[in-house]
């Protein structure tokens, strides 16, 4: 269930084995130094096989809970605005590498230099951040006005084009701006395994993969919180459910919400950033069904922060203007090689396919209408023996993706990987990357009340239209692929891009 070797971090060790590693490591280095200086012929290779970590009781909870009952300091405050009169308290302290960070912006001068008086103003943190964001916004807006079917920006890797995008040019401009300017600070507070760690396989893999990618720290991450445009709260709801949740206990789910509340309390008392924005420039990420519920223990987290969630259910408070819909991908191995691709449309003999458990009302409805009733719309609770799920996907023209116990379904990405046109059957679900992708171009939406009409709806799509959609499914694949290490325009970058757009508070 855990991260592949190539993604494995030194921090995968628990603090216990960490200390142990240190105790062994330091003498080892000393010995090595001696050996190297005394015996120049010998060469040593240190290989660290990361030992599996062990769960160390709930020690961290006690250390975090060492304050009296929360809640009173978590009152709801209205709309979030940065208090500009409070900004002086966040001015730069001298000699903190400010010049370095801002060299780039400083070169452009005009923002900082008053031409009449000749006075060069040093921006404080909030002013600098706002200046960067404002500049990015205006360049994206300009690109948006210039929208065309193909982006007019140059790019060695990929040039967005065609109707799968809402606006090719604005997306590309925004993506390039993000690469240049976006800086994410990852809070260091919190102990393994609940923090800085997550599942890299299973249905919740996107949660772990994202956390690992952030923790590895070579993309977007900054170690200087004053330089960050956004702050990441690196906890894993999936791991909390695994270690803190006791099924049926009197407290069952509360312990998870309280852990999150404790964490925010620690963050907000140690750093100024949370209080300054009341959480608006902070984000959390979870693929677990309970992700949204967990955030409700901290009103500012729920109402102000960017919540990156697989369970993007608008009836449960998911707000597409500030929250991000995270794809759910059921990764069983470390690689996506072999899962991606499929036969051409002419070799797909099945009109529509679904197989899966009877989870929730929508699936119930689907099963009642279609299970075992049609030769073209194949709906199974359990696949007939001898049939493989993957080959069914690859032999189908359309793949049905009904919501289960939560709105998101891993089938959406499975369909995209198998080059099968996804059919979204859900209520109140915001599909991933809707901020830049035009889902109508490469998927079909069927309202829950139209489940009986699925066949009619799919049959009414002309062959030409189908071929177009299927081609676009192949085109959009790159945005849903998780690479290790990450590649431009892939899933990791797209998630970061959605966060970037929320931080800019702009629509493309
Ligand atoms: C803004 O901050 C100043 C100084 O800290 C404070 O006096 C004022 O009440 C704050 N205003 C708002 C709207 O919070
Ligand atoms: C430059 O300074 C003058 C005098 O303080 C002020 O009136 C003017 O608004 C300033 N210009 C800018 C662009 O801030
Ligand atoms: C907008 O389009 C025109 C003509 O194609 C081009 O000259 C200009 O540079 C474009 N502007 C942006 C911001 O892409
Ligand atoms: C943030 O606000 C909380 C409650 O209002 C307060 O207890 C905490 O000390 C503040 N944090 C900082 C860093 O000032
Ligand atoms: C979010 O804000 C609304 C309106 O201010 C409030 O009614 C609601 O309780 C808040 N949500 C949470 C989880 O606190
Ligand atoms: C979305 O949220 C609503 C309100 O809580 C709930 O009734 C519905 O079942 C949820 N949808 C799914 C598919 O879980």
Automatic annotation (TrEMBL):
<feature type="domain" description="Exostosin GT47">
    <location>
        <begin position="178"/>
        <end position="461"/>
    </location>
</feature>
<dbReference type="Pfam" id="PF03016">
    <property type="entry name" value="Exostosin_GT47"/>
</dbReference>
<dbReference type="InterPro" id="IPR040911">
    <property type="entry name" value="Exostosin_GT47"/>
</dbReference>
<feature type="transmembrane region" description="Helical">
    <location>
        <begin position="20"/>
        <end position="39"/>
    </location>
</feature>
<protein>
    <recommendedName>
        <fullName>Exostosin GT47 domain-containing protein</fullName>
    </recommendedName>
</protein>
<dbReference type="GO" id="GO:0016757">
    <property type="term" value="F:glycosyltransferase activity"/>
</dbReference>
<keyword id="KW-0735">Signal-anchor</keyword>
<keyword id="KW-0812">Transmembrane</keyword>
<dbReference type="InterPro" id="IPR004263">
    <property type="entry name" value="Exostosin"/>
</dbReference>
<dbReference type="GO" id="GO:0000139">
    <property type="term" value="C:Golgi membrane"/>
</dbReference>
<keyword id="KW-1133">Transmembrane helix</keyword>
<keyword id="KW-0333">Golgi apparatus</keyword>
<comment type="similarity">
    <text>Belongs to the glycosyltransferase 47 family.</text>
</comment>
<keyword id="KW-0808">Transferase</keyword>
<keyword id="KW-0328">Glycosyltransferase</keyword>
<keyword id="KW-0472">Membrane</keyword>
């Amino acid at each position: 269930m855990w991260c592949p070797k190539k993604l494995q971090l030194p921090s995968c060790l628990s603090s216990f084995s960490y200390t142990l590693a240190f105790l062994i490591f330091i003498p080892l280095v000393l010995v090595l130094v001696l050996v190297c200086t005394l015996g120049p012929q010998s060469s040593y290779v240190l290989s660290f096989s990361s030992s599996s970590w062990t769960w160390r009781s709930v020690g961290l909870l006690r250390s975090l809970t060492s304050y009296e009952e929360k809640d009173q300091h978590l009152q709801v405050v209205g709309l979030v605005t940065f208090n500009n009169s409070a900004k002086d308290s966040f001015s730069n302290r001298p000699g903190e590498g400010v010049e370095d960070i801002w060299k780039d912006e400083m070169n452009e001068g005009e923002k900082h230099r008053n031409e009449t008086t000749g006075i060069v103003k040093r921006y404080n943190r909030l002013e600098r951040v706002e200046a960067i964001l404002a500049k990015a916004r205006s360049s994206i807006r300009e690109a948006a006005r210039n929208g065309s079917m193909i982006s007019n920006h140059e790019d060695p890797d990929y040039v967005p084009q065609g109707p799968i995008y809402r606006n090719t040019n604005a997306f590309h401009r925004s993506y390039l701006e993000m690469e240049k300017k976006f800086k994410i600070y990852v809070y260091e507070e919190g102990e393994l395994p609940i923090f800085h760690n997550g599942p890299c396989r299973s249905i919740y893999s996107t949660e772990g993969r994202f956390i690992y990618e952030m923790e590895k720290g070579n993309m977007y991450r900054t170690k200087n919180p004053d330089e960050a445009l956004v702050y990441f709260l690196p906890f894993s709801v999936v791991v909390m459910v695994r270690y803190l949740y006791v099924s049926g206990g009197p407290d069952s789910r509360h312990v998870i919400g309280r852990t999150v509340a404790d964490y925010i309390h620690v963050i907000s008392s140690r750093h100024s950033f949370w209080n300054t924005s009341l959480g608006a420039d902070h984000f959390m990420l979870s693929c677990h069904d309970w992700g949204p519920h967990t955030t409700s223990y901290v009103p500012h987290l729920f109402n102000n922060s960017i919540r990156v969630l697989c369970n993007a259910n608008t009836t449960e408070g998911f707000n597409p203007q500030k929250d991000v819909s995270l794809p759910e991908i059921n990764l069983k191995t470390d690689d996506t090689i072999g899962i991606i691709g499929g036969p051409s449309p002419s070799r797909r003999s099945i009109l529509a396919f679904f197989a899966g458990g009877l989870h929730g009302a929508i699936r119930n409805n689907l099963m009642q209408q279609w299970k075992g009733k049609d030769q073209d719309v194949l709906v199974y609770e359990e696949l007939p023996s001898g049939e493989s799920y993957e080959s069914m996907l690859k032999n189908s023209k359309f793949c049905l993706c009904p919501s289960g116990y939560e709105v998101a379904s891993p089938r959406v990405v499975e369909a995209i990987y198998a080059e099968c046109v996804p059919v979204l059957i859900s209520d109140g679900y915001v599909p991933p990357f809707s901020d830049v992708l035009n889902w109508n171009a490469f998927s079909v939406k069927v309202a829950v009340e139209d489940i009986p009409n699925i066949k009619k709806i799919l049959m009414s799509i002309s062959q030409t239209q189908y071929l177009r959609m299927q081609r676009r499914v192949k085109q959009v694949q790159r945005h849903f692929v998780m690479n290790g290490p990450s590649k431009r325009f892939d899933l990791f970058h797209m998630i970061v891009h959605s966060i970037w757009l929320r931080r800019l508070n702009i629509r493309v």
